Amino acid sequence: MALSMHKESLNNKQMDSSKYVRYTPEQVEALERVYTECPKPSSLRRQQLIRECPILSNIEPKQIKVWFQNRRCREKQRKEASRLQTVNRKLTAMNKLLMEENDRLQKQVSHLVYENGYMKQQLQTASATTTDNNSCESVVMSGQHQQQQNPTPQHPQRDANNPAGLLAIAEETLAEFLSKATGTAVDWVQMIGMKPGPDSIGIVAVSRNCSGVAARACGLVSLEPTKVAEILKDRPSWFRDCRCLDVLGVIPTGNGGTIELIYMQTYAPTTLAAARDFWTLRYTTSLEDGSLVICERSLTSTTGGPTGPPTSNFVRAEMLPSGFLIRPCEGGGSIIHIVDHVDLDVWSVPEVLRPLYESSKILAQKMTIAALRQIRQIAQETSGEIQYGGGRQPAVLRTFSQRLCRGFNDAVNGFADDGWSLMGSDGVEDVTIMINSSGGKFLGSQYNTSMFPSFGGGVLCAKASMLLQNVPPALLVRFLREHRSEWADHGVDTYSVACLKASPYAVPCARPGGFPSSQVILPLAHTVEHEEFLEVVRLEGHAFTPEDVALARDMYLLQLCSGIDENAVGACAQLVFAPIDESFADDAPLLPSGFRVIPLDPKTVMDGPGATRTLDLASTLEVGPASNRPAGDGEPNNYNLRSVLTIAFQFTFENHMRDNVAAMARQYVRSVVGSVQRVAMAIAPSCLSSDMGSKPLPGSPEALTLARWICRSYRIHTGGELLRVDSQADDALLKQLWHHSDAIMCCSLKTNASPVFTFANQAGLDMLETTLVALQDIMLDRILDEAGRKILCTEFSKIMQQGFAYLPAGMCVSGMGRPVSYEQAIAWKVLNDDKAKHCLALMFINWSFV
User: Fold this and answer.
1) Residue 193 — left, alpha, or beta (φ > 0 → left; ψ -120 to 50 → alpha)?
2) Distance CA 719, CA 712 (A)
3) CA angle, corner 608, sides to 631 and 571, nearest 5?
4) Is residue 626 one of the residues assigned to a domain?
5) Are residues 335 and 373 in the same domain?
6) Does residue 544 register a pLDDT over 50?
7) Where is the Homeobox domain (predicted)?
8) pLDDT tens digits along 311-354
9) In what order do the strands lie in the sheet with 848-849?
10) Is 735 left (phi over 0), alpha (psi -120 to 50) or beta?
11) Which domain holds residue 774?
């Protein structure tokens, strides 16, 4: 007995000592092989490992478990250390960039102080000698002498076949570009909202008081300079307004650089103006510090150089010295300086559109920031930081976005050399119809031969432009994206989708109200900063009569949405879509249609609350009732924003049906214009302010009264407090209700109709993925799943009798079709001041998107 106890004691000591066993290299190698396959093996897998590897037989399973825990901990520490090193490198580079920017600003301040002092001196001299003609003449002569000291540079005409002359132009362009990128040649003003940081898009500034329009940006990316230069030179891949870029000549220079003669065409953003083209010289070279420079300028009679190709249907614009300065960073990556400076010949466009061509902020969004975003996007895709589902390669998804934009731009511009021709109107000039029967022109483009019927036909485009007043572009496009049923006709959508097949569907007739359908948006990809979304939209059709069966099939659209960030100054908002079939191949034919809204004027007074206005009660919650607001603080008459809306829809047609398709397209675009006008009136800030201020909400009491009824009814029925507020004032209740973390919403109680939502707090709007204006289009039955509807029907009588009911955890869907889960729901009857039932309130607790 004593001997056996002694043996057990020895065994226990051996087991305890096994905690500190040192693994041999062979054992570590075996464990590492398993870790590579499965970093967190189960208990059964660890026991199997011991049986299969004899060299691990002397190690307890518990110790194997500890080894894997330590290994995972080391891996986590290694990744964290690597991440911190990357952040440190970014911060070091960004600090260097900010120091350089600070030095440049100090130089600019010194220059402005000098100019201010000089102007004061001139004014004092002029005022002291106003009665002395000779002195006045001397002042004039001194000004002329000053001009002679700084004459406008005049360049002799350079021969196209003279590389030395072109190199002289290139070197002058380089010097002027560097003075703008890192010097004080242009008075730069930082754009609002562009804050520097390791993860920001960069430092973005626009010009002030200079010829033309100019924008400047500097940022940090994780790509090497040569790769960055390759991306930036491929301008059509990131500049969506670039129609083509042809290199007509390449001349090597003695310093290892290259000079390229480039002809570039750009699209017009709207049907109301002509497109632009550029004839430029691009110079690529290296500086002594290892930086790469790509600079460019137009060749004109002033600069000299060869004459560019003749223009037809284009207005020749001028590119002033612009380009890219790419500097390598220590530890990898690059610092990029971008300057875009152009003169778009503003006098050649209608006066109402001139702000579009005079805005440096629009130039910054379209070109400067777009270039930085493209580089950051590719950098994150290359590093694996962005993972896309569906098995699509990032390059393919980018190509889809480019094809959608290019197809829409082609439709808006309708260039004759693409085969477009104008079709006669019906006497009213509000909608323009253009046709294109040259199918061969579109080979290898965004179109496909399958779109052109074998027995004759082509593509027809119906387009229109209109001016909008006081309508935020981001809100309008967001509404059009989320509520397609408000403006689209299901029959026309069906015709567009059927045109992808061999036997197109008959031309639809206009039916009042169209066909009931719902849309489900399936995210496909998005850019780094979520300013652009690529998605597939499934349109679910429902047939109620036998003749509607053909329209009841599910249809699919590839959709690109951009510019819905309300805080982006000068950003164009766009919604472009094209029908696709179920296969959705990488080379699927696309025939894009859509909307584009471009702001014409910058926001003036309402850069504060109005800049972030959404379709909700935010303005009421910030300052209380409209009657208590101070004058000028977000009042609608201070919101003076004009924008131009361009609509273009494309359809295929057969020759014998061309007139019918044209009539359908013209009528459809007119109906869409009418729908957009109604939507624009609904979301204009003036309407929002009047609806949410002194006037009551549509079909409901004022927001303050409704909040009081909701909280009081909850306390009466459940015995608990919905909100914890010290003050019982109505405005305090409304503010607490609005910012409540759980989704609270109210729906109507009508015996002869399905319940529709009448109110929701901010969390409720987020859960439903809708806006307060569009909330009343959503029915309660639509968001609940079958189980939820059954439970609510079962508990409805209980709610009406005792006033409330607790509903178990379940699932529902948002207004966009996304599944939402919640841990519990509470439903209670809301009573008005007369103790009569007013509506049904629902609170979804701890909800989240699945």
Assistant:
1) left
2) 10
3) 135
4) no
5) yes
6) no
7) 14-78
8) 778 999 999 999 999 988 877 788 899 999 999 998 888 888 88
9) 810-813, 819-822, 848-849
10) alpha
11) 701-849
